[in-house]
Write a structure and sequence with these properties.
The protein is α+β, with helices and mostly antiparallel strands and about 650 residues long. It has 20 helices and 13 strands. A six-stranded mixed β-barrel has the order 3-4-8-5-7-6. Helix 8 runs antiparallel to helix 16 and helix 15 packs antiparallel against helix 16. It is elongated and about 90 Å long. About 5% of the residues have low confidence.
């Protein structure tokens, strides 16, 4: 193993790995608390990052899957530009599509609420049962007693390529209140064919009868299987929306699609169809992604903080490992080991830490993602859209991508401490504390770097919003953390210097020794303080953000809603879907003793500059007496109300 000069010659990688086991593995076993803390830091950082991103991805995949399955073979769609629906008379103005070899069918899509606790939302899809088989594919769960007598009139029997036993009464599908339900909905509420159930629609209860159960395949997987499929006339009566549809699906050969879109633009002017537009079904996926973009970006940014804390921990653990073994490294250097062999051992240690931490974090992340999905999907269902997401779904390659990112973050965090290995010489390494003079030597440069990064963060914070994602805001937050981390050694140096002169007066010799120990390990102390700083800053920022959001909502409610009671349909409460009270309900409320005023308010979804928005319509006479909105330009509220009532105008939010 030694040559004539007495230096160590490694003829085999076996010796290097044997030394790794003696040098590192034994130290891990001797210090289990430190080893577990390092593993846990990496694992938690990866787990939080993975859980939030998997939950976000599952929500988006569910929406994309639902849109694609509901669209079926649809090539184009005609939708209302503003408001949530349109009159079905628009169908009479689309008959020119037949001359172009295209077919079209109306669709009514909305949400109702299960009439019993927990009052969950249920999607309703109304289609033309006689013409829809060319657009959407689904299978109806077979009934044994009907297996021998398929009904050729059943939508889905032949056109949808289902089993011959999948038959229900054709007349039953057109009877008022008779519907098909998804398998997941039937399982959730223990529904069977012929069984009745009730849902809430606007201000009334509607009784429905299960005519059949849709199997969980193709259309059956839309909305997570929790939906109701009905004939258009049945759905219009159920939803109290006679003569209304939400879109028109068009089936055409792919080469004709662009020509149809150009022809539609021409026909819009002739037929007076300015209130509708034509688009590809895929654009609805883009609209959903755009609607959820800010919400999901904020969650992703928060998950990066967990990964950042893990990076601080691995940096600290690697630094401690290098410092504790400097004398041993110097001995190995004196025995003939070169810098790169020692660097390889430390690199393998960090890589192994990263691999095991990421593996543990991946398992924890998938488990945590189920809980995160429940919270995220509840928020999305209630605030953004009515589709429920109950199952974690993601591309396995996405899991490997996140794991690789966590491993690379671990290696990047350990890069600087590992680089110190290259600087260890036999003479300097045997001197205790030889690492700290290097930290003290670069204090001014660290402080200067912190100031520069702080100025850069300040510049980022002043930049306006470009697009829809606040990239400059995220950059400002990241550079603020990095600036503070770089300035901590510089600040602590002078803090410890001040404490060394005053601690003895308060704590005696023990206090002075404690300060001296911290000052002698300035590098390790700085990293510990930085890790704690990030954790505390995260807690404070979340508390301030949530408190600010709540206070903003409270201020808005106090300004715009002066009522003592607030009443709305259950469907609107769940997800801002359509829903309204009848005039009889309003009259009943007005006639109730003790009611001084009733402000009728209507809200619907619109589109402005290709982004979703809300249109609110209020009784301005009541609102001018009871409301107290704060105007950005400090205009008097009464003057603004007088202007609104005098001429066609509106208010827009900041």
């Amino acid at each position: 193993m030694s040559d004539s000069s007495g230096k160590v010659r490694l003829n085999s990688w076996t010796w290097l790995f044997w030394l790794f086991g003696r040098f590192f593995v034994r130290a891990w076993l001797r210090q289990p608390a430190q080893t577990i803390l390092t593993f846990t830091g990496i694992a938690l950082g990866v787990a939080v990052f993975l859980a939030i991103n998997l939950a976000n991805e599952s929500v988006l995949q569910q929406f994309r899957s639902t849109v694609d399955r509901v669209a079926g073979t649809t090539s184009l769609q005609v939708l209302p530009t503003n408001m949530s629906d349109m009159p079905d008379s628009v169908l009479d103005r689309l008959t020119w599509l037949w001359d172009q070899g295209a077919n079209f069918t109306p669709v009514l899509e909305d949400m109702v609420v299960w009439a019993e606790p927990p009052y969950t939302g249920v999607q309703v899809l109304g289609v033309d049962m006689l013409a829809d088989s060319a657009f959407r594919a689904y299978s109806i769960k077979p009934r044994a007693e009907r297996a021998r007598s398929p009904d050729p009139m059943l939508p889905g029997s032949a056109g949808n390529s289902v089993n011959s036993g999948n038959s229900v009464s054709a007349l039953g599908l057109f009877a008022q209140g008779h519907v098909l339900v998804g398998q997941a909905l039937a399982d959730k509420y223990h529904l069977a064919e012929g069984q009745s159930f009730r849902v809430l629609v606007d201000d009334r209860q509607v009784a429905l009868v299960v005519e059949g159960i849709i199997e969980p395949g193709r259309l059956g997987k839309a909305y997570g299987g929790q939906f109701v499929l009905a004939d258009l006339s049945v759905a219009q009566a159920m939803l109290n929306r006679p003569g209304r549809i939400t879109r028109v699906d068009i089936l055409a050969a792919e080469p004709k699609v662009h020509g149809l879109m150009r022809r539609f633009a021409t026909e819009q002017e002739k037929a007076g169809l300015k209130y509708v537009h034509m688009q590809r079904p895929e654009r609805r996926n883009q609209q959903v992604a755009l609607m959820l973009e800010s919400f999901q970006m904020n969650l992703t940014a928060l998950s990066f903080v967990g990964l950042l804390v893990g990076m601080f921990l691995i940096y600290n653990a690697t630094s401690i490992s290098v410092i504790q073994r400097r004398s041993e490294l110097a001995t190995l250097r004196a025995l003939g080991f070169n810098r790169w062999q020692i660097l390889l051992m430390f690199g393998v240690q960090v890589a192994l830490f990263g691999f095991l931490g990421v593996a543990m974090g991946a398992v924890m992340g998938v488990l945590m993602a189920k809980g995160a999905l429940a919270a995220v999907s509840m928020t999305v269902e209630t605030v953004y859209a009515g589709s429920q997401v109950s199952r974690l779904s993601f591309d396995p390659s996405y899991l490997f991508f996140i794991a690789a990112m966590g491993w690379l973050a671990t290696m990047a965090a350990a890069a600087f401490p590992i680089a110190e290995v290259l600087q260890v010489s036999p003479a300097a390494g045997t001197r205790q504390g030889s690492f700290e003079p290097r930290v003290n030597a670069v204090l001014k440069w660290l402080g200067l770097g912190g100031v520069l990064l702080g100025l850069l963060a300040f510049w980022f914070a002043l930049q306006p919003l470009y697009g829809t994602v606040p990239w400059f805001g995220y950059a400002a937050a990241l550079f603020s953390v990095l600036a503070a981390a770089l300035m901590i050694p510089y600040v602590l140096h002078y803090v410890f210097k001040w404490l060394s002169h005053h601690s003895r007066l308060v704590f005696g010799v023990e206090g002075k020794l404690a300060v001296a120990l911290l000052q002698g390990a300035l590098g390790r102390t700085s990293m510990a303080v930085a890790s704690l700083m990030v954790a505390i800053a995260m807690t404070i920022s979340l508390s301030v953000m949530i408190g600010s959001f709540r206070q903003t909502v409270v201020d808005w409610v106090n300004q715009s809603i002066q009522a003592d009671l607030f009443i709305q349909p259950a469907t609107r409460f769940r997800s801002h879907q359509s829903g309204a009270f009848s005039s009889q309900v309003v009259d009943l409320i007005k006639a109730t003793d003790g009611v001084a005023d009733v402000d009728r308010f209507f809200q619907d979804k619109i589109e402005y500059n290709n982004r979703p928005a809300f249109l609110g319509i209020s009784d301005m006479d009541v609102f001018s007496r009871r409301g107290r909105l704060t105007m950005v330009d400090e205009a008097a509220f009464d003057d603004v109300m007088a202007m609104l009532k005098a001429k066609p105008s509106c208010l827009v939010t900041e």
